[in-house]
Amino acid sequence: MRLSPDEMIFWRDGFFKLNATIVYTWALMLALTVGSMLVTRNLSLGLTRSRWQNLLEIIVTGIAKQIEDVGLRHPKKYLGFLGTLFLFVASANLCTIIPGYEPPTGSLSTTAALALCVFVAVPLFGVEEQGLGEYLKTYTEPTIIMLPFNIISELSRTLALAVRLFGNMMSGAMILAILLTITPFIFPIVMSALGLLTGMVQAYIFTILAAVYIAAATRGREPRGEADTTIDA
Amino acid sequence: MDNATLIAIASIVTAGLTIALGSIGPALGEGRAVATALSSLAQQPDAATTITRTLFVGLAMIESIAIYCFVVSMILIFANPFWTHFIAEAAGK
Question: What is the CATH number of the domain that holds B66?
Fold first, then answer.
């Protein structure tokens, strides 16, 4: 039984090997990029517009609204990063309905890379918003004693972000594989529908958590809002 | 019993215990969360979208605790580092 698509190797030449994770990641990136390039090739400002432009506008405005709900005041600035995270994870999880496809998010390498992006982006946005000194000062709040714990929480939430997405996607694939050997008739279909729902929810959570972390880092020293204290698992 | 057998026994028993004990807490937590969300939905049907969204996020956060246990038990069974180490050592002998 395969634990991750890393073990499915298409091509190998010495040190370099091309596994399913890399192939499907690049295929998804290609599909997303070429798709949005094709859609945005001739945009219209008038009342008549293509259905694809409508779809893209719904997605972009929807993500921007969700980011704003979390507490980031200028969603346009963070839309590129958070929107890309959401679109990549969501499409990676939704494409599991295609036969023969293995979600690249079911590999710990992919999710660790995505979590590392968040880990690097949060201090960058925080420093950009508050300046280096002010940002570093937030680590010593409420007292200097909390400094090591703040650093540990920064690391552990990155780990949790990676393992959560990986565990959910891996468990979905594994449950399907086990069910196919036990009850191969109808039940796997129900479970794969549940897997699609889980995939969407996980993509949403990944993005929302990244947005919450960025909001906490950019908020500064004013009293912390609700988004900061509620979600920090 | 040699080392490999001991490791196999310990890994399988621990994997079962991990997923069994680790799913108790999240199960209780999810039950509480859904029960509270249902009662608040009955009180305020207007806030349904917000409650449902928060509920889903919260459920996934709670569920991830159980998922961590699942990942640990899967590692114990399918990718156990001690097991592979002793198998490699036995093969080298």
Answer: 1.20.20.10
pLDDT by residue, tens only, chain A of 233 residues: 667 777 778 888 777 888 888 899 999 999 999 999 998 888 888 878 888 889 999 999 999 998 988 888 888 899 999 999 999 999 999 998 888 888 899 888 999 999 999 999 999 999 998 888 888 888 887 888 888 888 998 898 899 899 999 988 888 888 888 888 888 888 888 888 988 988 998 999 999 889 988 988 887 555 444 444 445 45
Closest B-chain CA to A170: B71
CB contact under 8 A, A174 and B74: yes
Handedness of CA A208, A212, A215, A217 (dihedral sign): negative
As for the ipTM of the complex, it is 0.72
Hey, of B62, B67, B68, which one would you mutate to test binding to chain A, going by the most A CBs within 10 A of its CB? B67
Which structural domain, as residue segments, surrounds residue B19? 15-88
| Residue the block writes with tokens 């090997």 | A17
CA angle centred on A195, ends A192 and A201, rounded to 5°: 155
The CA radius of gyration of chain B, in Å to the nearest whole number, is 21
Domain contains B6: no
* B2 in any annotated domain: no
